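Homework-ish question, so no full write-ups if that breaks the rules, but can someone show me the predicted structure for this set?
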Amino acid sequence: MQFDAPAGSNIFDDARIVGKSTPRIDGPNKVTGTAPYAYERHDVVADQAYGWIVGAGIAKGRITSMELTAAKAAPGVIAIVTAPDTQPVGKGMDNHAPLFGGSEITHYHQAIACVVAETFEQARAAAALIDTNYDRSTGSFDFDAVRASAPRSGEAETLGDFETAFAEAAVQIDETYTTPGQTHAMMEPLATIAAWDGDKLTLWTSNQMITWAKESLGDILGIDSANVRVDSPYVGGGFGGKLFIRADAVLAALASKAAKRPVKIMMQRPLVANNATHRQATHQRIRLGARMDGHITALSHQNWSYNVEGASGETATAQTAKVYAGANRLTAEYCATLDLPEGNAMRAPGEAVGHLALEVAMDELAEALGMDPIELRVVNEPDAVPGNPGKRFSDRNLVRCLREGADRFGWSERSATPAARREGRWLFGVGVAAGYRGAPTCKSGARVHLADGRIVVETDMTDIGTGTYTIIAQTAAEMMGVPLDHVTVTLGDSSFPASAGSGGQWGATSSTAGVYAACVALRRQIGEVLGFDADDARFEDGSIVAANKAFRLADAGTLSAEDTIRFGKFKKDYDVATYAGHFCEVAVDAYTGETHIRRMLAVCDAGRILNPLSARSQVIGAMVMAAGAALTEELTVDTRFGCFVNHDLAGYEVPVHADIPHQEVIFLDTLDEIVSPMKAKGVGELGICGPGAAIANAIYNATGIRVRDYPLTLDKYL
Ligand code: MOS
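A: Not a homework solution, just the prediction itself:
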C-alpha cells in the first residue's frame, strides 16, 4: 500500500482499541521469566557451547604473537577462533571499525579471539591463558587536542548574513557547551546464539533491525544473506547500540563454524563500552543575537565531534535548523578522526546532546533580555521551516506544549532571579526547555492470518522494551474487529515480512501502518469469500456489517494476507516532527553542590498516541536517560591508552530510582495527517530531547551558577 498524505478519515478516527491505555501483553512473560532473551534460548537448538570474547589490550597497533597452547589444552575447550592475518573481518553496514580485529588493532577491546568451551566458566578460564603480545603504535585519543583542527563534515548551512547580524544584535550570547562520551548501558548486553545447518546460518540474537542484521551478516561472512536467518523476539534495551550487528554476532557465527556446534556468546559487560559503539563527546559553540523584544536575528550553532576514519560525528546541530525562527543563520559540523572505539547512534543521536546546548543558550538569552524563557521561545516560533519557506511543519504544537506545561507545573511561581529560593541548606530552582525530534517513517511489511476468527500477525519488527507487541495487537484488533486477546503477535524473525525495525523513533507509526496495510488486504479477501465490499464494511466484535447485512468473521475460514506500507514522496514538502515542553524542579545543596531532582514534567506533541500507557513509559525512560546525561553519565577517556576507563556499570553512573522522585507525562490530543495512516508519531526519542537542559536551567535558577560542561557534577559548583 502506498500512503499519500493527508491520511483523511479512516477507521482509527473512532477507534475503540487503538489509543487506549493497554498494559503490555508481553508484560506477564517478562516478569515471570518466560520471555526468553537471546542468551537464554536454551531450547532453540541442542548442544550449545559457550563462547568468550577476548578484547584487545591496546588501542592501536598490531598483534606480534598470540600463544594459544595453554588455552587449547585447558579443560573443556572446543575451539579458539582468531582473526585471520590478512583482511580485517566485520566491516559491515554502518560499522567502520572491524568487528573482529587481527593483524591491525583499531580500537581498545576490539575482538581479537573467541574461545569456545563446554561451559561458560571453562571458556572464561581458558581465555585468561591466552598470551598476546602487541606492537603498540601511537594513537590519537585526545579530542581536546585535535578538535580545533577537525575538518568540517558536510556542508555548513547558512542563511542571510550571520556575522553582520550577530555583530549588530542588541543582545548577544556566545557560549560553549561540552558533552562527554556516553554508553548505551542497556540492561541486556549484546548476545547471540549461532548455528549452522550446511551453508545455512541461524542467529538467535538481540537486535533492533532484523533486515539490516541479515544483510550485514551476509556481507561480512561472504555468504548469501538469503541463507541467514535472524531471530530476535525480545530485546532487553538497545538505545541504538543494537541497530547494527556487533562482534557477538560475527564471532558466534565464526566460532560455531569452527566448533561444528551451536555457540552462544554474551558480550561480557566490561567489554561493551569499548568493544561496541558509544555516543561521542561534543564541543558546541552557540551564538545568539536578538532584538530587545526577543526576536532572534542571528543564530549560529557549531559542533565539533569525532569518530573513527570514515564515520561521522555526533551531529548535535540537527534540531537547530528547525526549532526557532531567525533570518541570519550558520550551522556547521566538524569531525575529528580519533583512534577511540567507534561512535554510532545512541537514542536521538545528535538531538539529545544538541538540546543540552541550544536550550541552555536560550535560557541564557532570556536572562540577558530580562524575558521569561517560555515567552522567548514563543516569540521565536517559526511559521515555516527556517530558510525553506516552501517546507511546512506537518503538525506543530510546541507553543501549546510550553503553555500547558507552564500551567501544570506552576511556572508562574518561578523566581526570575536566581538563587532566590532557599530553605535551610537547600536552594530550589525550576527550568524549562523545548524539545524537537524528527518523526521519520520507513516502509514496513506484515503478514496477517485469520483462522477460527482469530488473528496472527507476523512481522520482523522488534520490541526493544517499547511496547511494540501491544500496539501491533491493538492495530490488528481494531482493523479486524476482534478483541485484543484474539490477536497473537509474533515479531523479530527474518522469515517474516521486513518491517521498519526499531530505530530513530520511526518504529511505532511505521510498523503499525504496515499491519494496517496487511489488514486492509485481509479484509478485502474476507469480503471476497463472504460476498461483501470490504471497503464499505464495519468489522466489530467478531462480526461484519456490510450493506445492512451481517456476517461472521469466523465463517471466512482460514486466510492470509501480506502487504508493505510505503510512504510517498510528499514528505519533502513537510518537516514531520515531534515536540515537547520539558520542565524540572531541582534542589541543590548549598554546601555540597549536590543536585536532587524533585519533579519533572514533559508535555508531548506526537500525533495520535497509540497506547498512552506504554508511550508514557517510553517518555519516562527517556527523561531518566536525559537526567543521566545532565548529571552523572560520562565515559572517561584515558588519553594515554585510548580507552574508556569506566567501562562497566560500577564506574559508569546511570540514574537510579532515588534520583527521580516524580515524573509526569502529558500528551496533547493531536493527530498528524501527514505522517502515516495511523496519524501517530514516535515518542521514544522525543523524551530525551530537552529534559537535560531543563535540569541545567533549573540548577542555574537555584544557584545562579552556570556550568556548561556536562555532566553537571557537584565538584563543578564548589
Ligand atoms: Mo535509535 S539511536 O535509532 O535506536
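Now go work out the reasoning yourself. Hint: The first helix runs from residue 27 to 31.
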